[in-house]
Amino acid sequence: MKRNTKWVFTAALALVMLLTACAQTTTPNNSGSNTNSNTNTGSDSKPEANPPADDKTYTLKIGYENNPGEPIDLAANRWKELAEEKSNGRLVLELYPSSQLGTKVDLTEQMRSGANVITLSDGSFLSDFVPDMGIMMGPYLADDVDSMFKLYQSDWFQGIDQQLRDQGIHIVTTNWLYGIRHVIANKPAQTPEEFKGMKLRAPNADIFIKTVEAMGATATPMPLGDVYPSLSQGVIDGMENPLTVIYGSKAYEQAKHIILTGHIVNITTWIAGQKYMESLPEDLVQILKETGDEAGNFMTETVIASDEETIEKLKAEGVTFHEIDRSVFKKAVEPVYATFTNWTPGLYDTVQNILKE
User: Residue 155 and residue 151: Cα distance in Å, rounded?
Assistant: First the structure.
């Protein structure tokens, strides 16, 4: 009897061990696909760009040199409102005017490394990454704003855009009219000869420096925020910029002559890092771009509408306006285009043909 009990016990134990082994074998097989998936998306694999939509909040820091109250600041606030509303709060745009986040160079390096930063930029600066982009800030390149916008929508520019992405820079929106650039100085000048000896602040980019020098003046590169103290200390005699920026900088307190050169139709862009844009869900990328374009339309309308008002404000501050023969200046700056030997051969003609289409 004892032998039978022992045999039954042994058989039962063997059955339990067999079932346990089967269960252990079955469990890994049922979760095997998940295990393989985790392995494939490990640290050695490239993350998938533009992940699916989620409920996370994404904060973007918007940095720019301009002061509160300028059209670019008003439009940035409009962008913030639109983006946050249309994303139901999943996008949060934090605004940092007056260079609070640092220089354009600093911000660009941060964003290329993956930081959640967006900043203003244009052809003069972006030419450091894609040389042909520099022509977008060429003197007297186009006759009007609509022509410049047409250039940004061309197939040629789409190629430029892709080259910038390859450099880690993602253009978010392009239809922002920064303004028509003129000169403010502490003395009048109406010809290139009368500009000689005048020290004018210019952004630290070759296209601006060479344009100012071709117009007859001496270019003095410096950040926009340094203009006011430099004028008051006599380091410079003036600067070139759109009227609204001139007014916002309060340069008129130190210089009382505006020369209406209209030498550049300044379209600006907002750029982000390609890495960060790829980390945003696709629907938020779309909202960011669409609302950026809406704010750009607002910016353009604001700049155009405010120019006359700004002229009256500047006149009230004792500023005198001087009309010039722009054809004389246009001829004076023609040699500028031939100095950029790193541009694609025939680039100027390519752009002019697009503008004529």
Answer: 9
Q: Say if residues 121 and 106 touch (Cβ distance below 8 Å).
A: no
Element (H, E) at 59: strand 58-63
Q: Per the structure block, which two tokens stand in for 155?
A: 């197939």
Closest CA to 174 of 297, 34, 342, 48: 297
H/E run at residue 179: strand 169-185
CB hemisphere CA count around 8 (13 angstroms): 5
Q: What is the pLDDT of residues 232-288, one digit of tens each?
A: 999 999 999 999 889 989 999 999 999 999 999 999 999 999 999 999 999 999 999
Assign 225 a pLDDT band (cuts: 50, 70, 90): confident
User: pLDDT tens, 207-220?
Assistant: 999 999 999 999 99
Note the pTM of the prediction, 2 decimals.
0.79
Tokens for 330?
């246009």
Q: Indicate the helix (H) or strand (E) that contains 173.
A: strand 169-185
User: What three-state secondary structure class fits 89?
Assistant: coil
* Total Cβ atoms within 10 A of residue 356: 7
Number of neighbours of residue 61 by Cβ within 10 angstroms: 19
